[in-house]
Every structure is written in C-alpha cells, then in structure tokens.
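Write out this protein's structure.
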Amino acid sequence: MKISARNVFAGTISALVDGKVNAEVEITTPTGDRIVAIVTEGSVAALGLAVGKPAVAYIKAPWVMLLAGEGGVKFSARNQLAGTVDSVQKGAVNSDVSIKLAGGTLVHAVVTNDAVLELGLKPGVPACALIKASHVILGVPA
C-alpha cells in the first residue's frame, strides 16, 4: 500500500487505555520512539488493537507543529518528539522541515516560510515536533 502521509511509524502497541467513546493507543517503534493516538472504541474493535500487536501510525506533514530550541515549554500535544533540524526544503510559500530524532527517524513538517525564518530553523538547530494524538491515524497489517 502506498500512502500520502510523509510520517510513518511502524511498531508495536505498547499501551492501550480504553474509554467509553475513545481509546488512547501508544505505539513504540524499534528505535524507541513513542507515538500516542486517540481513536474510537469502534476502531479498536475493528482493527483488533491490543498490547503487543503490530501497528503503524501515519501523520500528515501539515499536521506537525514545530517548536524551536530545547523545549522548556509545556504543551497539550501528547506527541512531543525532540531532535534536531536535518533539512529545510523551501517552496514558494511553505517549507518541508525534517527533524531527526535520537534514533535516526525523520519527522517531516510543512510550515510557512515565515515560520522557518521566525523560528530560526536550519540544519543542526534543536527542535521539537508537536503532534496532537487526534491527528494520528492508525493502521494494522492485513
């Protein structure tokens, strides 16, 4: 299967917290990255989600927000992935910024060129990818 989402995190479900309507699902990748997703209980049942099962988290690059620097700020976004800017590909209006995480995984964000300038994003600069758990789409092997 091919998919348009730039960010793909394959791993194993390491935690699952059921609720009345939604569930919180945590996926841990082989490199130790953790991605939290909020999905409906219907999706938990339909996909057969359970701790220990393989799953894939998909996140579109425009859904990724960026924070420049080492952090020190608290956010409500469940996924806060710290790393360093690996590359910035500038377009006419937006740029594709890739953040390299400690394990080597790249997280892509599409942000405005103005944001790149205002945040001082360039290769080697510390940055954090912020992703709301509700912006994570889960899939399972067929």
